[in-house]
């Protein structure tokens, strides 16, 4: 990527962030209760959340991301009902985009498997 003269790394913070729409649970340290928030964008080092949660800049929290689990973070910025979270440890954001349970359970339940095509129609019982 070509950089313009005088542009700092902070100006490029959107690079590497994927816009998406997921729901996640959030716990603010010391508060004890959970809140449901919308995940608006996600990267390996942080995310933007949207929701009616009272947070302050620098507040420690945990967010439960789909297929990843609880991730620790700190509120980096706040603007109305949106706020940025800097994760304490990097994550792989691609895992959150995968279908639920795709990594944990490789066996497909019987009710979603395709109908067997090698069944002899003459052996089927008519109802």
Can you characterise this structure?
The protein contains one helix and six strands, in the order ββββββα. By secondary structure, the chain is mainly beta. It has a domain at 16-98: Thrombin, subunit H (Beta Barrel). A hairpin with a 2-residue loop joins strand 5 (69-79) and strand 6. The longest helix is centred in the last third of the chain and has 5 residues, at 93-97.
What layout of secondary structure does this protein have?
Layout: E1 18-28, E2 34-42, E3 46-50, E4 60-65, E5 69-79, E6 82-87, H1 93-97
Antiparallel strand pairs: 1-2, 1-4, 2-3, 3-6, 4-5, 5-6
In short:
The protein is mainly beta and 127 residues long. It has one helix spanning 93-97; strands at residues 18-28, 34-42, 46-50, 60-65, 69-79, 82-87.
Assembly type: single chain
CATH superfamily of the domain at 16-98: predicted glycosyltransferase like domains
Task: Tell how many strands the DSSP assignment holds.
Answer: 6
**In terms of structural class, how would the helical and strand content be classed?**
mainly beta
Keywords:
disordered N terminus; elongated; 1 helix; 127 residues; mainly beta; Thrombin, subunit H; 6-stranded antiparallel β-barrel
């Amino acid at each position: 990527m070509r950089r313009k003269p005088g542009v700092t790394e902070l100006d490029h913070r959107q690079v590497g962030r994927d816009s998406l729409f997921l729901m996640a649970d959030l716990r603010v340290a010391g508060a004890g209760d959970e809140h449901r928030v919308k995940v608006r964008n996600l990267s390996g080092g942080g995310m933007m959340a949207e929701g009616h949660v009272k947070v302050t800049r620098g507040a420690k929290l945990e967010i439960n991301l789909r297929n990843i689990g609880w991730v620790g973070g700190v509120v980096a910025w706040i603007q109305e009902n949106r706020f940025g979270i800097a994760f304490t440890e990097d994550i792989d954001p691609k895992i959150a985009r995968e279908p639920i349970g795709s990594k944990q359970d490789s066996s497909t339940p019987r009710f979603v498997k395709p109908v067997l095509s090698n069944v002899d129609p003459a052996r089927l019982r008519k109802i």
